[in-house]
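Worked example

This section walks through a single chain of length 440. The input is the sequence exactly as stored; nothing has been trimmed or padded.
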Amino acid sequence: MAQKPMPADTLPPDSLAYALDLAAEAVAAVIAGRNLDATLAACWRNHPELPPASRGAVQDLAYGALRRYGRGDFLLGRLLREPLKEVRLRALLLAALYRLEIRPEDGHTTVDQAVAAAAGIARGNFKALANGVLRNYLRQKEALEAEAAADETAHYQHPAWWIRVLRENYPEDWQAVLAAGNSRPPMTLRVNRRRSDMASCLAALSAAGIAGSALDDTAILLEKPQSVEKIPGFAEGCLSVQDWGAQRAAPLLDVRDGMHVLDACAAPGGKSAHLLELADIDLLSLDADSGRAARITENMERLVLKAEVKAADCRDLDAWWDGRPFQRILADVPCSASGVVRRHPDIKWLRREKDISGFARTQAEIIEALWRVLAPGGKMLYCSCSLFPQENALQLTAFAARHKDAQRLAIGSGKESPDFQLTPRAEHDGFYYALLQKLG
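Given that input, the structure is written out below as tokens.
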């Protein structure tokens, strides 16, 4: 007697089929327009039975399938006679194709487990289709890879408009920027110098079997990412997880003891905490999202630091400002996040080129409002995790043209420029910084 299709929710939680099924659920949600991080967070809540290793497998499959979405979508176009209307199956095939590419030695296992996962979709009606598509990929792999290499979106694994914008603005290294966007992100720690020092933290990491190297006086690049529970000193507030590019913000703002300082878009609080680690300041940390603002407080408590935290839109001065001007303002503005897509691969496929103008309008509104609360002689650091000039250099040029009382200060390694753009590299993500001083 033929075996009945096995519903996906009866698959063993530690099986590859189960991981493929949950990864497909996440990828399908992103295809439908949902945020990947929120989708995975809901997955962990809904499946508390998942062992840690299985959770890692689900995350790797979902992230990998979305990093390579341009390639996977191209391959499916060659392997299917017509587009799939069943989004969950399409997502499952994308996750399976990703694993077939990174684990070619497990090809038959991947196909079998993907077919088992397909048993839970549409009462198992797509098992034969899933089996045929994946086995055809294995048979035609060499020819398919040659075709994908000739297709720009499949090769660079970014939308065509994104590739064009980067090529126009980074003519020397646009290909390296795209390659970095498809890579796994580094994990960097920041030493809380109020509670520890570089030598002690490196020694503790080494004793725990965690390899890391110092990038500067406070940044440690880990050889391999680790869960924070395994990092000695994290729970005690000696260390924080923060990208090395993001760690540039606090020193650039040039805070000093006694200053009244604003972090205007502060959640989850990494830059606010870094400012407090550098100087004894009177800090107000704002975020428009009350849930995210709560994370600022949590971080401050772990690091044994103190700031006033408010949930408010920084553009609405009447909702939060008490009339006291700030001597320093950090404007870490909402943006396309194009410099951190390796951490959020869904962004590449959810963003549209027209969205950039919307972000630019919001950014302009934010810095216009913040300029009103900056004291004469005070400094405002504008930063974003974007690579697009419309959100960065062009934004600041336009602002300076509107405000004759705004002086752009030289920053960067050589301090010869009024701004600098970090592109993603092995050690850090992509960030933009510009420093303004208010004359008068």
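What to look for: The chain has a mean pLDDT of 95.
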